[in-house]
């Protein structure tokens, strides 16, 4: 009986060990990203690369991921592991995917560069730190704009969004319109329509012609689409 118990124990240990090995194999290596040292890598469909950046409270970080033949989604996490920002612009396989943050806590911030299309052919991308500095007044305002954009993208009605804008009139800028444009592409069609209506109001108020054109075009797509706007 003792031999049987021991045998079962070894089986449990073996299965647990194999599980740890499999988990380790599926966890991407975390590479430190340094200012002034851009990294260019190849990425295949479904793969993920992870980078870490040490930040102190009050610092501002801006990172650009330049797509060079593969569409990537970029996600930024704080030291507590919580998601701060996720970007997957409708730029296809070329062009920049920017993320930024005003650090509210010191520690390691993590950036994931992921290919959402598992069937995508391998391509290349470059990731670089565009800015890492003590936050300037402009950085702090930009951070407030991004926070407002997220809040506006989650309102239930257009009127609720208009009321929120009335309280933050100094943040009604081209940057706010552009932020809403990007967020709309992550939403289902019904929510995206509210986001793009608010983007249109902002673009009209500041005289941003390109923003007016983009929001009208996206509203047309959202009105005809079902589910995820990016697939419409």
Would you write up a description of this structure?
The protein is α+β, with helices and mostly antiparallel strands and 232 residues long. The chain has 2 domains: 30-134, Sandwich (Jelly Rolls); 137-231, no CATH class. It is 41% helix and 28% strand. The chain has helices at 2-26, 137-152, 158-167, 174-184, 189-206, 209-224; strands at residues 30-32, 39-43, 48-55, 59-68, 73-77, 83-87, 94-102, 107-114, 123-134. The strands form 2 sheets. It has a 5-stranded mixed sheet with strand order 1-3-8-5-6, with no helix packed on it. A 4-stranded antiparallel sheet has the order 2-9-4-7, with helices on one face. Strand 5 (73-77) and strand 6 (83-87) form a beta hairpin. It is globular.
Secondary structure blueprint with pairings:
Layout (H helix, E strand, L loop, with lengths): L1 H25 L3 E3 L6 E5 L4 E8 L3 E10 L4 E5 L5 E5 L6 E9 L4 E8 L8 E12 L2 H16 L5 H10 L6 H11 L4 H18 L2 H16 L8
Parallel strand pairs: 1-3
Antiparallel strand pairs: 2-9, 3-8, 4-7, 4-9, 5-6, 5-8
Helix pairs in contact: 2-4, 4-5, 4-6, 5-6
């Amino acid at each position: 009986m003792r031999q049987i118990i021991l045998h079962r124990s070894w089986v449990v240990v073996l299965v647990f060990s194999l599980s740890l090995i499999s988990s380790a194999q599926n966890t991407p290596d975390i590479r430190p990203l340094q200012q002034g040292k851009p990294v260019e890598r190849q990425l295949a469909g479904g793969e993920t690369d992870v980078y870490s950046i040490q930040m102190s409270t009050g610092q501002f970080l801006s990172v650009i991921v330049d797509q060079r033949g593969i569409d990537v989604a970029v996600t930024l996490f704080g030291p507590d592991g919580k998601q701060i920002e996720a970007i997957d612009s409708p730029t296809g396989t070329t062009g920049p995917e920017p993320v930024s943050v005003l650090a509210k806590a010191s520690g390691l911030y993590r950036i994931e560069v992921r290919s959402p299309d598992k069937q995508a052919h391998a391509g290349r991308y470059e990731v670089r730190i565009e800015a890492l500095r003590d936050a300037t007044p402009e950085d702090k305002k930009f951070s407030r704009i991004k926070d407002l954009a997220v809040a506006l993208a989650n309102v239930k009605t257009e009127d609720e969004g208009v009321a929120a804008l009335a309280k933050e009139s100094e943040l009604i800028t081209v940057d706010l319109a552009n932020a809403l444009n990007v967020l709309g592409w992550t939403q289902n069609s019904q929510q995206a329509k509210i986001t793009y209506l608010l983007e249109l109001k902002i673009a009209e108020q500041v005289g941003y012609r390109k923003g007016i054109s983009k929001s009208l075009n996206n509203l047309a797509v959202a009105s005809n689409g079902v589910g995820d706007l990016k697939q419409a």
